[in-house]
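Design job #97: recover the sequence.
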């Protein structure tokens, strides 16, 4: 029998049932995020040949065991891992002591590797970007974003490997942008259908360049347009494809209105129920679908040292 409160009523959560309630005047919404249920249940029933996966978050994140990524995957296992990535959106691996060559070889099994024009490799392998932060270097990764959306063909995915990690802090968070789209009300979905956003590197990487170098890179990488609602090329599911790192406006919309819309849509990544969080250990790997998720590297370990290396896989133009 349900207990009564001092006021004589039942638990208020039982009174309203499994639905969301908005607290005014703050606009804060509380209650279970029920639209995640079907995907959450689906992921818990997924099975793959050649390895095991344990769900790490509600609708994204799978901890993979049973694979040694130092050796090439056979065609069947590779196909299963591709299917697993499409399902879980980001995959995690522990105890994978890959060399730099092995890191690149693993990523290359999924496609051509990207050479980043702004982030130096700092290694002998051009396709590896190295992030080395310590007391004299501060990173700028702590914001929600998809990588390189200012490219005509942004990354399909990225394989990030931990080399040195701080004793505490330095986690990476991921947000399911399918869940973010599904959580919008019908009015907003109708409003953004068919809209295109302008993506530009200038406001981020451009701030580190002198005027001449910035102008040269703007000529090589002019602003591009991508749909606000991207249809995933593998699953066919819709997802939100805007972020505050690289999106500068909405095509055909006044600047103030466009910025307000971008802020509202990009903020969906901040919904905790859409996220999972990965605690790094040396030789851990995260492999994420850059189309389906945004990520955020927590910058809470300064001035400790954190060294990571990333290989990114070239994708196709968003549709």
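Job complete. Output follows.
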């Amino acid at each position: 029998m349900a207990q009564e409160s001092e006021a004589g009523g039942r638990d208020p959560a039982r009174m309203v049932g499994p639905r969301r309630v908005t607290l005014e005047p703050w606009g804060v919404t509380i209650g279970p995020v029920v639209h995640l249920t079907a995907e959450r249940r689906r992921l818990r029933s997924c099975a793959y040949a050649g390895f095991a996966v344990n769900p790490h978050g509600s609708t994204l994140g799978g901890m993979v065991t049973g694979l040694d990524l130092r050796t090439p995957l056979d065609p069947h296992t590779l196909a299963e891992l591709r299917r697993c990535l499409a399902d879980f959106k980001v995959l995690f691996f522990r105890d994978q002591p890959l060399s730099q060559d092995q890191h690149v070889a693993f990523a290359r099994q999924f496609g051509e590797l990207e050479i980043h024009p702004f982030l130096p490799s700092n290694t002998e392998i051009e396709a590896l970007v190295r992030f080395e932060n310590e007391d004299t270097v501060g990173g700028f990764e702590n914001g929600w974003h998809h990588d390189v959306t200012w490219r005509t063909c942004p990354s399909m995915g990225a394989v990030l490997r931990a080399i040195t990690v701080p004793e505490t802090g330095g986690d990476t968070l991921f947000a399911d942008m399918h869940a973010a789209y599904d959580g919008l009300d019908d009015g907003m979905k109708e409003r953004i259908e068919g809209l295109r956003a302008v993506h530009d590197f200038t406001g981020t990487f451009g701030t580190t360049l002198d005027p001449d170098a910035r102008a040269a890179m703007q000529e090589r990488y002019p602003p591009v347009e991508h749909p606000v609602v991207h249809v995933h090329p593998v699953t066919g599911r819709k997802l939100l494809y805007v972020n505050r790192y690289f999106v500068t406006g909405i095509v055909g919309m006044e600047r103030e209105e466009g910025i307000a819309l971008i802020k509202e849509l990009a903020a969906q990544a901040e919904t905790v129920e859409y996220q999972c969080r990965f605690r790094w250990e040396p030789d851990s790997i995260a492999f994420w679908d850059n189309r389906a998720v945004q990520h955020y590297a927590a910058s809470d370990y300064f001035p400790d040292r954190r060294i990571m290396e990333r290989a990114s896989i070239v994708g196709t133009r968003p549709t």
